[in-house]
Amino acid sequence: MKKIKKLFFGTYVRGFVVSYFIFLMTGAIMLKLPISIQDGQSLSWIDAIFVSVSGMSTTGLTTVVVKDVLTVFGQTVLAFILQFGGIGLIMLVSIFWLVMRKKISFRERTMIMTDQNQIGRSGIVRFVKSVLIMIVIIEIIGFAIMGTYLAIAYSDVFSISEAYFQAFFLTISMFTNAGFDISPGGNSLMMYNTDYFMQTLAMGLMLLGAIGFWPLAELKNWYGAKRRKETFKFTLFTKILVVMHLGLWLASAIIVYGIEFNGFLADKGFIEGIYYSLFMSLTTRNAGFATMSMTDMSATVQVLFGVLMFIGSSPNSAGGGIRTTTFLLTIMGIIAFARGKDQIVIRRKSIKFDTVYKSLMVVIGAGALIVIALLIMTYSEPFTAHELFFEIASAFGTTGLSLGITSSLSLTGKLVIIAVMFIGRVGILSLLLMFKGDKQVSSLKYPEIDLIVG
Predict the structure, then answer these.
(1) Which whole number is the average pLDDT over 138-156?
(2) How would you class 234 by CB atoms within 10 Å of its CB: exposed for 0-12, middle for 13-18, buried for 19 or more?
(3) What pTM value is reported for the model?
């Protein structure tokens, strides 16, 4: 037993990854229960695992129509999988430690740090408390507003109880950037494609969930300081996250509008075109909701969406991808190398070389993962490389958008997408660090050589 424990929980990172694997298998078992499946419907084990992994990773890709296959109980189970997966399994478990007034040990702090992409353990408990308070406040407000709005504006579609259950499920799915829906017809948010209030509310929840938990924690601290009439300054890290997320969102929305101006948006009004561009540019950064069919967009925009899904959202957020800071440091590293500089400087602060090196490892690892998955799926699936790239990028970025091929994947294709979604959730670095052994310092130093590269 000691050897097995050391194998699976021997390091903090290994324990973190294994914990998520156990969680996804537990979720699959819960979804497979008879009480979770509607009469006359069936859910195979591979599909149950697929949906559980997709929920745990807050991806949104699904091989079945959730509304048609799962009962209210099954949909509730899925909602809790989304909540735990989006906020972070380890961080939510810490609620139990805090409620029971149990002292959070060094090991538990390290697991929280790994789960939330934190740099250090200092202030980790305070961070968890602040984030959880903000999440509860945001989701309660979102649930109340959305439930009331749906009950009034869509009284001919939903009963009061149905309206509030829709709000319960969608609020969690939107904030965790999961992309799952239980809308009539199972067509994501297409029924709200001209409902700008619903779209604005959805974008607000998606933005808050993807912008990063650190800015949310600092927002709470800023409000507290303001009430005490004290001065509070946001950290450089928070400013970078907010600027990067908003900047990529608005820039991509402008590009989409420009490309599709004479295409999909040609017969749309100005406001309608703006909302399509804003919503689809934001949702491709991890949310996975759609107010239109992806196939209606041009191939150019579909490739752009693939790139946005690859980049993903902020670190320590409900989203996935390589993350905005990784993208930023990689680009700045290339620029610094081209200019002959040996430092990357942001606001008169130099970024550590190890951090830049990790960013490059994440980009290279993610690129290799997508290429390997694409090679396997072009052999096993009857779809074009373009369609498969979009599906794989969506899985890695935990986005959930598709060109309509998910339900038609073979067993091999489903297994590949399951693996990519899982890796997209736990992170490339965590996966690589699973194989890290104890650090050994050798007294033997070998002579250096040089190689021609490039």
Answers:
(1) 95
(2) middle
(3) 0.84
